[in-house]
Design brief:
Elements (H helix, E strand, L loop, with lengths): L20 H15 L13 H14 L17 H14 L7 H13 L2 H13 L4 E4 L15 E5 L2 E8 L10 E7 L10 E7 L5 E6 L8 E12 L3 E2 L5 H16 L3 H16 L3 H30 L9 H22 L17 H8 L9 H12 L5
Parallel strand pairs: 1-4
Antiparallel strand pairs: 2-3, 3-7, 4-5, 5-8, 6-7
Helix pairs in contact: 1-3, 3-8, 4-5, 6-9, 7-8, 7-9, 8-9, 9-10, 9-11
């Protein structure tokens, strides 16, 4: 099967694992092309939850919202290989990223470490979209160095009392729950003494303040905890075991952030901009060199993707993937801005060419070496945990 149009539409909640990988890819490709809202294709900015909800609901109805979850919990139960195929097909089509912290982080965490009551309450509400999650990890003085966080949780009878601040909370103004890392043992070493909590955003003492980023988008927020009281059973797993759980969640995130998608999109933008400005021939050597770098990165990405396909846990060396991808993405966006000249000062699309927005591509690339763990921190991880330096 080579043509997506020939793939039969699958029944909702059907088990697709028996399909071969090639047939599965065509089924996914065809279904996305038929069902994805065309107005949401390849958005220039991260969508807010309300904007993404039509796609969220279609995936939920089909049973495709949580492809990595076991089928017994409402997921697709996909093998690692098929999970990567689905991600690749979503990226290929230009599907917007969902408000996915519940899908990719909270859900898998609760399946592995949560109580029966936590799973019974939260998993169905993630699937329905009733609960939208945000991540309470980064802090003003503990961003990429997550183990240095200062938010505290103190046990008081049948409650935990949280105090502190989180920042750069993606979609914090959209979410109605937040998962929080907080220090529960101030005497323990940095990585030990941290616990993982589930907190409703409407809890008294919790305040959310939006942050407008350099691209004039209110994607982020800061969240303040002022004597926020939550029940004792709001903790996931054992007390002081939060660091291990949080660290396990970051490996897949770094694979996702190391995907060639951003660099591929930026390079396509550069080629189209060169054609629009009548400079394709002049830019050909530069574009060819960047294409070679991109192909190198795709090969690098395939190495880690193959580990996931074979069920091998990602190690600290996956940090190299994010370092390489984000550096390339910024390099391409620099060339876009240089080529655009004064047109790069425009916030939106070029006059008469709404799908060319060089200034926005440049701005979107600026924070990529910071979010998900800054490049400096990633290099430290590689130096210490992969190369054994500094021991």
């Amino acid at each position: 099967m080579t043509d997506a149009a020939h793939a039969a539409p699958p029944a909702p909640h059907a088990d697709l694992n028996p399909l071969g990988d090639a047939e599965f890819r065509m089924v996914v490709r065809s279904w996305i092309a038929t069902n994805y809202p065309p107005e949401l294709r390849s958005p220039t900015k991260r969508l807010h939850a309300a904007q993404a909800m039509p796609w969220y609901e279609r995936l939920s109805t089909q049973g495709w919202l949580c492809p990595g979850w076991p089928r017994e919990f409402g997921g697709m139960g996909l093998s690692p290989a098929k999970l990567l195929i689905m991600i690749e097909e979503m990226e290929r089509y230009g599907c917007a990223r969902l408000p996915d912290s519940g899908i990719t982080m909270v859900g898998p965490l609760l399946i592995a470490h949560g109580s029966d009551a936590q799973r019974a309450y939260h998993l169905p509400r993630i699937l329905s979209g009733e609960i939208i999650w945000c991540q309470g990890y980064s802090e003003p003085n503990a961003g990429s160095d997550l183990a240095s966080l200062r938010t505290t949780a103190v046990r008081d009878g049948d409650e935990w009392v949280l105090n502190g601040q989180k920042t750069w909370t993606t979609l914090g103004t959209d979410a109605n729950w937040i998962f929080v890392l907080a220090r529960t043992d101030p005497e323990a070493s940095k990585q030990r003494g941290i616990s993982f909590f589930l907190v409703p955003m409407d809890t008294p003492g919790l305040t959310v303040r939006p942050i407008v980023n350099i691209d004039l988008h209110d994607e982020f927020a800061e969240v303040f905890f002022d004597n926020v009281r939550i029940p004792a059973d709001a903790i996931v797993g054992a007390v002081n075991a939060g660091w291990t759980m949080a660290k396990n969640l970051l490996g897949f995130e770094r694979l996702f952030l190391g995907s060639p998608k951003q660099s591929e999109g930026a390079l396509d933008h550069l080629e189209r901009l060169a054609a629009h400005m009548g400079k394709s021939e002049d830019c050909a050597p530069m574009i060819t060199a960047l294409k070679m770098e991109l192909e190198d990165h795709k090969s690098f990405y395939a190495t880690f993707a193959d580990q996931v396909r074979r069920g091998i846990a990602l190690g600290p060396d996956v940090s190299m993937l994010k370092i390489n991808q984000t550096a390339l993405y910024q390099k391409i966006s620099d060339r876009i801005l240089e080529l655009a000249g004064e047109l790069g000062t425009l916030a939106g699309g070029l006059p008469g060419e709404p799908m060319l927005y060089p200034g926005s591509v440049f701005l979107q690339a600026r924070p990529c070496t910071i979010y998900g763990g800054s490049s400096e921190i990633q290099r430290n991880i590689v130096a210490k945990q992969v190369l054994g330096l500094g021991k």
